[in-house]
Amino acid sequence: MCFSRPRVDTSYQDFARQEAERARAEEEARQARISEGMTNIRGVFEDLSPVLGQREQAMRDFYLPQLDKQFGDARDQLGFSLARAGLLTSTTAGQKQGDLSEAFALNRSGIESDIASDLARTQQQMNQQRAALESGLRASGDATAATDAALNTAVTFRQDSPTLSPLGPLFYGVGTGIGAAQQGYRTGQVRRMATPNPLSSGTGRVVM
User: Fold this and answer.
1) pTM of the model
2) Which residues, in sequence order, are bridge partners of residue 200?
């Protein structure tokens, strides 16, 4: 007499295996979409690199010519003031010209610092936007949406221009007072020459 083995129901195990395979395939597809989206985001932000250079050039083209013009005008004004006072070859002239050159260097350094700060803020904003897009992509797995968002962000950065305001007077009064000071000095000389020295006689000898 033959006995057949009872049939074992493996439907649950088969279903679990199929679900695991499906989940694995979906996760692989999701990771592939994330990888694609990351590549697209990286490409979009790499294409934004020239934006910083253009932003820097716009600020330099706006501010540096103003600085140079003001410096030239101040140098001319100083030269006129020194000439009127008869001090072109004096120690005072050298000191004033040195002060003017130092003021130019300080103002140039300040402009460069402001430009660098603006570029650093813009770069930080770009990094923050990119990080937010990548985080959203990892959560959603939607490469298309992430790419579209990156492209829209790029448009915003390309359209953003630095705030440019005319420079105020940087070398105001550089030649002021030179003529008055020299006139005062000359007046003092005249008065000292006109006032007799009580300690000396007319011959220049000290009276003992």
Assistant:
1) 0.74
2) 206
Q: What is the 3-state secondary structure (H, E, C) of 108-171?
A: HHHHHHHHHHHHHHHHHHHHHHHHHHHHHHHHHCCHHHHHHHHHHHHHHHHHCCCCCCCCCCCC
The answer to the question of residue 173 being in a domain is no
Residue 169 domain-assigned (yes or no): no
Please give the tally of structural domains in the chain: 1
Assigned domain for 175 exists: no
Amino acid, single-letter form, for residue 2 = C
150: closest CA among 165, 161, 134? 134
- Name the amino acid, one letter, at 149: A
Q: Minimal CA–CA distance to 167: which of 36, 76, 70?
A: 70
Question: Rounded mean pLDDT of the chain?
Answer: 85
Render pLDDT for 45-77 as a digit per residue (tens, 0 to 9): 999 999 999 999 999 999 999 999 999 999 999
In a domain, 74, yes or no: yes
Domain that holds residue 56: 18-163
